[in-house]
Amino acid sequence: MRGTLIIGAGAAGLFASRYLPNALLLEHNPKPAQKIKISGGGRCNVTNKEISPSHYHCGDSDFVAKVLQNYDNTKLLHFLAKAGCHPVVRKKGQYFCPRSSSELINILLSHRPKIELGCEVMGAKRIEKGFMVYTSKGEFLAKSLLIASGGLSYKKIGASGIGYEIAKSFGHTITPLRPALVGLTVQKEQFWFKQLAGISMRARVEVAGKVFEDDILFTHKGISGPAILNASLYWERGAIILSFLPRLPKLSPHKIISTQLPLPKRFVKAFLKSIGIEDKKVGELSLEEKKRLGLLCRYPFAPAGTFGYERAEVTKGGVRLQEIAEDMQSAVMPGLFFAGEVLDVTGELGGYNFQWAFSSAYAAAKGIKQFLVE
Ligand SMILES: Cc1cc2nc3c(=O)[nH]c(=O)nc-3n(C[C@H](O)[C@H](O)[C@H](O)COP(=O)(O)OP(=O)(O)OC[C@H]3O[C@@H](n4cnc5c(N)ncnc54)[C@H](O)[C@@H]3O)c2cc1C
User: Fold this and answer.
1) Residue 299: which H helix or E strand, with range?
2) Residue 91 pLDDT > 90
3) pTM
4) Looking at residues 323-348, what average pLDDT do you find?
5) Taking residues 109-118, what's their average pLDDT?
6) Phi and psi (nearest 5°) for 94?
7) For residue 239, what is the DSSP state?
8) Ligand 1 pocket test target in 35, 165, 307, 338 with most atoms within 8 Å of CB
9) Whose CA is nearest to atom 27 of ligand 1?
10) Which of 49, 64, 225, 237 fits as disulfide partner to 216, beta carbons 3.0 to 4.6 Å?
């Protein structure tokens, strides 16, 4: 019987297969690594200068810290350099492939992993000496099973909930799943955002004790941009706070408000209208209106929801970490392993999700090797 079956030939599955030469990957797409291909605007933001659990939404920070430490960004960059790829830092410590994400894909395929393409996994069950996996191409058997099937976002390039379903069928708990690193839709009170579609500006976003200072982008659906995508990871419900300006500048009483603020004029006009202030000379503002203008520095609003899985970079939530050992083996089903996004670990924008995929895949591969010799 084969040693290992890996469900999913994405980042985590392919990386784990490097260390498991006899493993067979089951992938329903006609090509492997489709998400890597489109990631980071086609250049794949592979990791970050600063990797720590504080950049992850997860069910157990200590667990995540250990997995990340055992295969950190230095080890990943060293591995890539040895393979001839030297990622470059573009912004905020984010490492991208120098030319295109194909560079990373070629490296992940360089050991010529065995992949059954066009093979849709539909379920799995325990058999006496291991696992039987049901697929569109028949049944496959192995002593160990690695679930690396990712999350629910971007169905059009292969995402499915199969990992969660198989985990549940073996007795695992799945923490609530939500689209994350995604734009936010707005309620009636903020419909004025939509009129500003296309405007991008710097802002500070505060959510659930986290602060992100980066660009925001108004869209015809609501609000997006890097600061909002990061905020979406921590937003559950209730208000988030936008600061369009750190503080109000000194304003001349003789000049019109919108001519004095260091913000896009179209934005200022829509903002003033939304808070019921006419765009007039500052000297004509009542005391109460002046106070209301302070909302520019602290504007709380409750999003209506998110743009959904089709626009989300990742899925937050997943297989509960308390049911997984540090070798990524299931605590409820020996021989069953997990890696990547299917677990309840979701990183912020900036290469954190690929780093997690590779670190957890490395731990899982080590765990599987050990399991197979025991
Ligand atoms: C547009 C976009 C851009 C992104 N950019 C970045 C970035 O720059 N940096 C970063 O760190 N993260 C980025 N991410 C997130 C990152 O791509 C994922 O977190 C990462 O790919 C997760 O790796 P994984 O191996 O767990 O899952 P995946 O890479 O998604 O791999 C899972 C594989 O399983 C296969 N599969 C699923 N269901 C089945 C089934 N039923 N049968 C057979 N096969 C199945 C899928 O087709 C897929 O190939 C981006 C995501 C998106 C959508």
Assistant:
1) strand 299-301
2) no
3) 0.97
4) 97
5) 98
6) -90, 125
7) -
8) 35
9) 150
10) 225
Q: What is the mean pLDDT of residues 47-58?
A: 97
Residue to probe by mutation, ligand 1, list 25, 352, 353, most atoms within 8 Å of CB:
353
Yes or no: domain 2-179+313-373 corresponds to CATH 3.50.50.60? yes
What backbone torsions phi and psi does residue 310 show, to the nearest 5 degrees?
A: -70, -20
Helix (H) or strand (E) segment spanning residue 346: strand 345-347
The CATH superfamily holding the domain 184-306 is Translation factors (2.40.30.10)
Report how far residue 135's alpha carbon sits from residue 339's, in angstroms, rounded to the nearest whole number.
20
Q: CA 190 to CA 274: how far, in whole Å?
A: 8
Q: Which atom of ligand 1 is nearest to the CA of 120?
A: 42
Q: 153 CA distance to ligand 1 centroid (A)? A: 8
pLDDT (mean) for 105-130: 97
Residue 112 CB neighbour total at 10 angstroms: 8
Could you tell me how many residues make up the chain?
A: 374
Mean pLDDT of 47-63: 97
Backbone φ, ψ for residue 68 (5° rounding): -70, -40
